[in-house]
Design goal:
With 431 residues, the chain is of the alpha+beta class. Helices cover 25% and strands 23% of the residues. Helix 8 runs antiparallel to helix 9. The longest helix has 16 residues. The site of flavin-adenine dinucleotide has 31 residues, from strand 2, helix 2 and strand 9.
């Protein structure tokens, strides 16, 4: 079990580069393999204790980009930030982006990542037109929503277990300029969040809410809506001066994120005056954490756990109230607590996490058993409500929980490459 701060030291690492060998069999590796993108998953889906990692960042070439229709094909190790640098000046943006641009195309497919526009656009896999899957027996499969469908559905959200994705073709969306019209609004409780949500969703393609999970009683679930849309033509400012990202230089021996700092930060963040509406560049809107490199070090050497669950719509109000109450009572708060509704659109990925409901994501400093016990108490609520926990952000869910959250796991298992496995998979399904 590994919180995110511990990086993969125990894994043999194999660099996959431009001249990827035709066959993994002749590669001199006899251990089990798992692809490693840019390591932005918070848990062990990209780790392989005792096995080997296929480091994919060497697959870094663009193959084709058509600025007339926004179709882009690139090797799987290309970062989303590299795609944006190429396409935003030409008027195209990712159809779906997670909260960091430092993830690879392969990683975005394998976790079927979601973004602030899930209620209108679904997840990343819904915008994948095609990819190539290289199996360890040298077979190369071109997979699309209409060709090799079963491989497409197993690999989108397939946690890297079905083989190596070598290239991906995606559909981008048109934008007029790099600016976002953003709106902020406070809500005083979970009930107010739910009451306002329909109105915001009707007006904005991008919505996410920060919540103060240290608040209790009537303030339980209070927070801030952050909504946005790509600015229309003509509504833009001169390009902002480029800002250099700051870096947290080292991990202090103890976490700087503790009860006191969480309560203080959350109170301030909630009450801070902020403009109700404004025009901002896309980077701080989509990727606020990318401006503070190595931010995970703030959690000290023991690291932290993420917890992201989704609760089906019917039970969402009660289950979320219970989850927030359990967190507030535990005194183990989170600064980065995020709430969002997932829409109906799904990518068809057998193990995809996004499904209709409300999703809540939180960070907890690793306080050992105390934190694990809290997370298990949160899992009780999620299981009871028929929800699910996100594997990309997990380092501790039990096998029983996983099998309940992902009932298609047995169908999926038939597509696993016999040479592939991961620490996550061995943890939730014995080898
Ligand atoms: C600050 C931050 C914000 C985030 N916000 C969001 C968010 O809003 N929404 C969201 O969904 N996620 C979010 N994430 C999680 C992140 O988007 C995913 O974990 C993503 O999959 C990481 O991609 P990666 O390239 O770093 O892949 P890794 O983390 O290295 O690997 C992820 C999975 O992809 C597989 N994989 C990687 N490359 C390949 C390949 N070429 N072929 C086959 N399999 C491959 C790996 O085996 C592994 O199972 C966030 C993470 C951070 C750090």
């Amino acid at each position: 079990m590994k919180p995110w701060a511990n990086y993969p030291q125990q894994n043999e690492q194999v660099k996959i580069a431009l001249f990827f060998p035709a066959s993994l069999k002749n590669f001199g590796i006899h251990k089990k393999l798992i692809p490693f993108g840019n390591g932005r998953s918070y848990g062990d889906v990209c780790l392989n204790d005792g096995g080997a990692l296929l480091l994919t960042r060497g697959l870094d070439r663009f193959i084709v980009f058509n600025p007339a229709n926004g179709v882009l094909r690139a090797e799987a190790g290309v970062l989303l930030s590299e795609i944006l640098a190429l396409t935003v000046p030409q008027g195209w943006f990712l159809s779906v982006t997670p909260g960091t641009q430092f993830v690879t195309l392969g990683g975005a497919v394998a976790n079927d990542v979601h973004g602030k526009n899930h209620h209108v656009a679904g997840s990343f896999g819904s915008h994948v037109r095609a990819f190539e899957l290289l199996r360890s027996d040298s077979e190369r499969l071109t997979c699309t929503p209409k060709q090799n469908i079963e491989w497409f559905q197993a690999t989108v959200g397939g946690l890297g277990l079905t083989g190596l994705i070598t290239w991906v073709e995606i559909q981008l969306q048109r934008i007029a300029n790099p600016w976002i019209v953003a709106e902020n609004r406070r809500f005083a409780s979970l009930d107010e969040f739910l009451a306002l949500n329909d109105d915001y969703e009707a007006r904005y393609p991008y919505i996410v809410s920060w919540i103060d999970c240290a608040a209790r009683g009537r303030a339980l679930g209070r927070g801030i809506y952050m909504a946005g849309m790509h600015a229309p033509p003509g509504l833009m400012k001169p390009p902002p001066a480029e800002r250099r990202a700051l870096t947290v230089p080292f991990a202090p021996p103890i976490s700087l994120i503790n009860n006191l700092s969480v309560r203080g930060f959350n109170w301030l963040y909630y009450h801070l005056p902020r403009p109700a509406r404004g025009l901002i560049p896309y980077q701080p809107f989509f990727y606020p954490l990318d401006n503070l490199l190595e931010w995970n070090r703030l959690y000290g050497r023991r690291g932290f756990f993420q917890y992201q669950c989704v609760i089906p719509p019917l039970d969402a109000r009660e289950a979320l109230r219970e989850i927030l109450a359990r967190i507030a009572a535990s005194g183990q708060g989170s600064m980065l607590a995020v709430l969002k509704r997932f829409g109906e659109r799904t990518s068809g990925g057998l193990l995809s996490f996004p499904r209709p409901g409300i999703t809540l994501a939180l960070d907890f400093p690793n306080r050992g058993q105390k934190t694990l016990a809290l997370l298990e108490r949160l899992d009780e609520v999620t299981r009871q409500a028929g929800g699910a926990v996100y594997p990309a952000k997990d380092a501790r869910m039990s096998g029983d929980s996983f099998r309940q959250y992902y009932p298609q796991w047995e169908v999926f298992s038939r597509s696993i490459d016999p040479r592939f496995s991961s620490s996550f998979w061995r943890r939730v399904i014995a080898d």
